[in-house]
Amino acid sequence: MLWIALVDRTGSGLWAAVSVLYFTYVTGLSVAQVGTLAAVSGAIGIAGAPLGGRIADRLPLTRVLISLQILRALASLALLTTDNYALLLAFSAAGSFGDRAANVLTKLYATRVSGPDRVRYQAVTRTVANAGWALGGLAAAAALTIGTTTAYHWLLTGDALSFVAAALLTVRCAEPPSPARTIATSKDPAPTTRSANPWRDRGYLAYVATETVLFLDDAVFKVGLPLWIAHSDQAPHGLAPLLMVLNNLMVVALQVPLARFGATTAAARSPLLPLSAAFALGGVAMALSATGGAFTATLFLTTSAVAFTVAEMLHATVSWELSVALAPGTAQGAYLGVHGLAQSAQRSIGPLAVTAAIATGPLGWTAFGATIAVTCVFQHRLVRDQLSRTALSVPPVTVSEH
Q: What pLDDT does 233 receive?
């Protein structure tokens, strides 16, 4: 599964770095059309998380994951066949759906096979995935020096082939044990209780709502920082890709060491308070980057990138553990699918939030960081109440280590 993460994210790095340029220069879409395509495909992709999770509670996880990888490959290859806007929209939406569903199922697989070491496994997975992103981004940057239509086509083809390779690697993975599926015989008594439903669990839904806000750090690096630098009179425009590299290098170097702060469910709640401070610092540093010359802008933008990266790593550790700990063992797929809605929804909401901060100026960035910081504090209290309620009402479930 670690090899799958590396291959998958390397291919995604090839495409993510050039997707906007491809739709602009190769298929000839306008800025408005590109924005609409990204927003619509992201909105449709939201459905992939809960549907994928629910299906994985009923069917073999590896088979579903293989099907999703094939869907992503076909969607990427289909983009090469047309410049029709409606078809590009449909193919992008299919790819987005497969991406969000596969992301949840990969997390579910890790949860089922890693047992009590799931937080460390998550940290190693994120390290490998970020290394893949960096490799793909560097390859895309090299290809962009050519700048021909053929170069763009090869990058998209490489993305599709990475999904094919991921599907073939998944075939080699054993099916993990699932507490949601058991073999019943005629002698077994009929079940008397219904399986847990995340859509009726108000506490979990409230937790997912706060997660949507905490995932906004993703939009900072993908949209906020590049746009803020592009419209700055002081910041060097070449700083944007360097800050992305800094983000990747920090995750590769520090994600595993930071995982020890969330090694248990009780410990995973504690980083929410320093996480709040990191988000607040990131927003203030972005605001201060507009108050001086080139050196001042570079200094504060780098500080902001470091703060948001620390926040990203802490939140990844906290989110992984708590999303599993708050889910009943017999409905992990359904619950993690609903949790996946947070990251999927952020893909549509995030760009709007950071562009609003940019339009408002320094005050907007301060409010942006403060809003997420307050949400961290609220989640800290919410999770405490939820974990107490779960401990009183649900017997502990241990993920099989066999």
A: 82
